[in-house]
Design brief:
By secondary structure, the chain is α/β, with parallel strands linked by helices. The chain has a single domain (5-299), classed as Rossmann fold (3-Layer(aba) Sandwich), CATH 3.40.50.150. It contains twelve helices and nine strands. α6 links the parallel β4 and β5. α10 packs across α11 and α10 crosses α12. The chain starts with a helix and ends with a strand. The structure holds S-adenosylmethionine. S-adenosylmethionine (SAM) binds at residues 34, 38, 43, 47, 50, 73-75, 78-79, 94-96, 99, 121-123, 139-141, 144-145.
Length: 300
């Protein structure tokens, strides 16, 4: 991507950039800001509301073992566990050590010897051999890695010829894509990121997806793009309880609240997020929020 194109992307998505955290030095060592961001919170608290949709998504993949699957940006295994329960040999890779540990605990509790979680970066899958997976899946995971062209190349590299890559990505500027709206509101309360930062939300735009996989050597006719829906559901949560969870456990929203608190605007941020959750909630007693995402399927 040349400089002027990067700048125009910046301008288009600037409202959704700020909550993702930037480089920091720790005792003289560069700490991966992406890792810091996700280890700062505890995504398991949010993931608990996504289990049904994770199951449904895996169901829709038509898993037929024997099959080796990489779940990239797997969190604590919302999709990795159902994949393994269907008999696939699954490796979950995530940048956050706390989520890798949580995933391994869930796998052990479920007695799944065919599922292992390990730490790794979607931008550079060190130690992962070329063409080693039949399916590479990434549900709202790899989209958050900071170098999208490297991510596309890595996903193509580790997937077998004849295999599949499936991604789920939130869609920017789409009022039905709940999490993109949460991030948009959050970013309005955080300082702007450095020039050149590419918003994760760009993975929800057809042209960028085609461009990134195109540069990884995949032609357009091998890529299908369609909208799909994920559901956040809980009988035990209210809209304000949901935002309390995002505030305490979801890295990008935690950053937004920290910045808003410094400016005396935390109440305003909270109210906007609760209003959004109320507007999108269809349950009278708990939480049921539908969230549109871009489902990307690449046939190699
Ligand atoms: C929104 S969570 C989704 C987790 C899981 N896929 C799910 O659906 O429950 C995003 C995940 O991506 C992971 N992640 C972010 N950047 C990453 C990177 N560069 N490499 C690997 N994982 C990353 C985070 O640690 C986090 O677990």
């Amino acid at each position: 991507m040349n400089g002027s194109r990067a700048l125009s992307l910046w301008q288009i998505y600037e409202n959704e950039l700020g909550a993702f955290g930037f480089a920091r030095y720790d005792g003289g060592n560069m700490v991966n800001p992406n890792q810091l961001l996700w280890e700062k919170g505890d995504f398991t608290a949010i993931a608990a509301m996504m289990r049904h949709s994770g199951e449904a998504l895996v169901q829709s993949l038509g898993i037929q073992p024997p099959l080796r699957v990489l779940d990239l940006g797997c969190g604590d295994g919302t999709t990795a566990l159902p994949l393994a329960q269907r008999g696939a040999e699954v490796v979950g890779i995530d940048i956050a050590r706390n989520l890798v540990d949580a995933g391994n605990q869930r796998a052990a509790a479920a007695g799944l010897a065919n599922l292992a979680f390990q730490q790794g970066d979607a931008c550079r899958l060190e130690g992962v051999a070329d063409h080693s997976f039949d399916l590479t899946l990434s549900v709202f995971g790899a989209m958050f890695a900071p170098k999208p062209f490297d991510v596309a190349k890595e996903m193509v590299r580790v997937t077998k010829p004849g295999g599949r890559i499936v991604m789920g990505n939130w869609i920017p500027n789409d009022p039905t894509s709940y999490v993109s709206q949460v991030l948009k509101i959050s970013s309005a309360f955080t300082p702007p990121p450095p020039e050149g930062f590419i918003s994760p939300m760009t993975w929800g735009v057809d042209a960028h997806v085609l461009d990134r996989f195109g540069q990884a050597g995949v032609s357009e006719e091998k890529i299908s793009l369609r909208k799909d829906t994920f559901h956040f559901s809980s009988e035990d949560q209210s809209p304000s309880g949901l935002i309390d969870l995002f505030r305490r456990y979801y890295g990008p929203t935690m950053n937004a609240f920290e910045a808003a608190e410094k400016n005396g605007k935390a109440g305003e941020l909270y109210d906007q997020l609760v209003d959004l959750a109320k507007a999108q909630n269809s349950s009278a007693t708990g939480i049921s929020i539908s969230a549109t995402f871009l489902r990307v399927t690449v046939h190699l």
